[in-house]
Amino acid sequence: MKEIKNVLIVTREYKCSRNPKVGGTGVFYKNLGAELVKRGIAVHVFLISKYTFDIEEEGVKIHSVKDIFKANPLLELLRSFTGKVKALEQIHFKTYLSEKKIISDKISTWIKKNHLHFDIAETHDFDGLALSIPKEIPYVIRCHGSWSVLEKYFGYKKVHKGRVFCEKAAFKNAENIITISKYNETINKSLFAIKEPKLIYNGIDEKFYRPDENAEIISKSVFFLGNVSFEKGAETLIKAFIKLKGIHPEASLHFIGNPNHYPAYIAENIQDMETRNAIHFYGNKSGAEIVQLINQAEVVCFSSKGENFSLSLLEVMAIQKPVVCSAIDSFKEIIQEPVNGLIAGEENFHEKISLIFEDDHLRNRISLNARKLVESKFGIDKMVDETVRYYEEII
């Protein structure tokens, strides 16, 4: 079996010093790239972002080009206009395909100019970016969560038709696909008719995300980690917290992540000042800051309406905190109630949180089991080992 020596990651998201505010996919590829480098594998990232730059971080060489549509106002105008007129739909699709062709040409020019060679490339499913990978490079698509999936299964609105078109075209051409959970595999098989994908669960660094025995826990504190949005269940948790305050007046609610419009939402919709003052927004935080804050939590809630998979959930479980999760398939794939967490419906989050507050034995048991599960099944070393073996099978 041929040894993997050079890997190319083609992505619209990669967390680095020049591009710090990214979602889970960007964090995933940062972690994957760094771990591959530790194994002696050279990693280059071809990034499409807001900026043009070349940097090296944690041994990973990052080449970023400006978003094609943003860099070309005429192409952006054509994309926008044709997307609004049904009769111009085919032109709209061709505009998106031309964007992929431009990216492909840029990748080929960059490779030739720098005398690079890659054994394999990896990219994400959203935007159909696999269409941009030069044909001579074997590649794999990892299903982090396409626009097609977000629209059909998670209720996202106003998804660009060109994005969905490119995603379908990319999957139609793809031979090598990684799914990140059984649920993720099921919905992608249904939507794109993919065959024989490789299931590799996402992994986290359980040595970094770990409990701090000296941390001072904020009594009756409820934490939320992630983008503070309707889709992630922010309103569900706020409504649950109002009910919770009636049972536990000393309770407090803490949001870690981009707050969006929710500070204003709180001011407009909660009249009781005591309840309003018990809700805190910390904004986006670094990994180290997240570990410090979550260690202060008594319980952490994941009230999302839809997820392919959640790295944030694994991070919190690794910090050995009790979690209460919404009753969606991807969470139920990880959480076994009442062994390593609790599952709640939209109307009874406050009841499940109260159980954690009131039962020390339950809280301690599920916290310990949560950490054990991550160590045994969702560590980053396991994920990277399985990824490299799959790369080797492909080439």
Write structural notes for this entry.
Helix 1 links the parallel strand 1 and strand 2 (42-49). Helix 1 (24-38) crosses helix 16 and helix 4 (89-113) crosses helix 6 (161-173). Helices cover 44% and strands 17% of the residues. By secondary structure, the protein is an alpha/beta fold. The chain is globular, with a radius of gyration of 22 Å. The strands form 2 sheets. Strands 3-4-2-1-5-6-7-8 form an 8-stranded mixed β-sheet. Strands 11-10-9-12-13-14 form a 6-stranded parallel β-sheet, sandwiched between helices. The protein has 2 domains: 6-203 and 380-394, Rossmann fold (3-Layer(aba) Sandwich), CATH 3.40.50; 221-377, Rossmann fold (3-Layer(aba) Sandwich), CATH 3.40.50.2000.
- Outline the biggest β-sheet: 8 strands, mixed
SSE sequence, one letter per element: EHEEEHHHEEHHEHEEHEHHEHEHEHEHHH
Helical content class: 40-55%
| Oligomeric composition of the shown chains | single chain
The CATH C-level name of the largest domain is Alpha Beta
The CATH architecture of the largest domain can be named as 3-Layer(aba) Sandwich
CATH superfamily of the largest domain, by name, is: Glycogen Phosphorylase B
CATH topology call of the largest domain: Rossmann fold
Parts with pLDDT < 50 across at least 5 consecutive residues: none
